[in-house]
């Protein structure tokens, strides 16, 4: 690696130093945001993941691995080549393990909470680092509220909400495996699970059923995938988010809050806000754009690092 690249990586690492007070899972390099287009480096305690979004990094993989080993003392490193932006499935990416002195699975801490990660598990580790700040913000609003965490994945929002005193949480996801990992995250944080805390279901169907049954929530979280297949139909966040927003608004108590978020770079903050405003009609008190922690420098300038998130408060 040339000196300029090393200096840029060092500068990026040093800019993240303050975040180490709250977590040991962070993004150390965020591509273009750190003047290193196509390179993403993440650290999970003493393990690392490199995502390569540009072929110019491929020839230098060995040097990157050496750097991660000596500079960060990594005991595990996997490099994931993600040159094709359309490749969303783990089988479509070329992943190779470069340092193998510890298992790919470990537990990280964030704001005094614990989360299991598996760095071998496809594209994602089990904890979306770009949502760290929003987990804290939303959890800070949920004390005493009934929370519906739709598209829950490994239930990190649910863990935060329960730890912050939500009166109940329901984590809804279509994936049994993700909910199982969510249950493990509850266990890591000594949170006892209520019987209905994890629901394997289609989020829209769940919300429609809740409306029918008269169940209401003080907080609904909507963080759907960009694209997904369910029941023979293709879900696209750009096309289908308005229906989800409408369903969520219908089951929010008055004064309730909605988090609406997407990683799909084809949906701008403004377009998302227009969807929310249309779905919320006269019930909306305020819409606040949410951001990311400092490790996501330059987010929004590249498709591989994009998050539009809105906090909606109702009357
Ligand atoms: C972007 S991830 C959510 C991340 C999560 N909010 C977090 O912060 O950790 C999308 C999740 O939606 C789930 N999913 C996909 N289609 C679904 C559906 N129709 N109903 C419920 N969950 C679904 C996937 O299994 C995946 O866990």
Structure summarized in a few sentences:
This protein has 315 residues and is α/β, with parallel strands linked by helices. Helices cover 29% and strands 30% of the residues.
Describe the structure in your own words.
There is one protein chain. The protein has 315 residues and is of the alpha/beta class. The protein has helices at 3-15, 61-72, 132-139, 156-163, 176-188, 203-213, 237-250, 269-280, and strands spanning 25-30, 39-44, 47-52, 76-81, 94-100, 105-110, 113-118, 146-150, 168-173, 198-200, 217-222, 227-230, 233-236, 252-262, 284-290, 308-314. The chain folds into 2 domains: 3-103, Transcription Regulator spoIIAA (2-Layer Sandwich); 128-314, Rossmann fold (3-Layer(aba) Sandwich), CATH 3.40.50. It has 8 helices and 16 strands. The chain has a 7-stranded mixed sheet with strand order 10-9-8-11-14-16-15, with helices on both faces. The protein has a 5-stranded mixed sheet with strand order 1-2-3-4-5, with helices on one face. Helix 7 runs parallel beside helix 8. The longest helix is centred in the last third of the chain and has 14 residues, at 237-250. It starts with a helix and ends with a strand. S-adenosylmethionine binds next to helix 4, strand 9 and strand 12. S-adenosylmethionine (SAM) binds at residues 128, 131, 151, 153-154, 156-157, 172-175, 178, 202-203, 223-225, 228, 230.
